[in-house]
Amino acid sequence: MEPIELEGPRVRLIPLEASHAEALFEAARDTEPFRYMPIPASIDSAAKMRALLEAILDGNTGQVMTQVVEGKPVGTTGFWDYKEQHRSVEIGFSWLTRRLQGTGVNTESKLLLMRHAFGPLECMRVEFKTDSRNVRSQRALEKLGAVREGVLRSHYTMLEGPRRDSVYYSVLREEWPDVERSLEARLQS
User: Fold this and answer.
1) Which residue ranges make up each domain of the chain?
2) CA 137/CA 32 separation, integer angstroms
3) Full strand arrangement of the beta sheet holding 147-157
4) What is the model's pTM?
5) Number of Cβ atoms within 10 Å of the Cβ of 76
6) Tens digit of each residue's pLDDT (9 = 90 or more) over 100-148
7) What CATH superfamily is the domain 6-188?
């Protein structure tokens, strides 16, 4: 997947770089962004954040992006597990500093990513997954218009805590026009 930048009225998505570690460490201080992810939850220094970002950049089969608002990194999101042959991609590794949660930044970020997925990438399916305990994330995905598909039980080994059940959601190409209109209306209100 070629590196891209996506921009909307409030948020700019740029390719994640290890050099974003210090700013993302600061953005993560007011939240628990990795609590439900199968990575170390206790990122307590910019150096640990850099090591995490380097590991993610090495292993991702898509493109993780830094969310930038008013010139500052405030979280991450992006494409994972891009399957060109099957015309599908996952949107994940999404977290946002607490002060911007509920402000439309997440909605705009997902709108930009899905427009790219259903547009230039010509995807037939965009999928999302979240920890079954992460009710906030499930509600956010449902507000985006994603359809809950089911649960993969004991799906991941968490590095800190129990095994994780993952709840899968998706948006299909034929659903996308209605989802896009809904997201645009939410952002305008």
Assistant:
1) 6-188
2) 13
3) 6-7, 12-15, 63-69, 72-83, 88-96, 125-131, 163-172, 147-157
4) 0.93
5) 24
6) 999 999 999 999 999 999 999 999 999 999 999 999 999 999 999 999 9
7) Gcn5-related N-acetyltransferase (GNAT) (3.40.630.30)
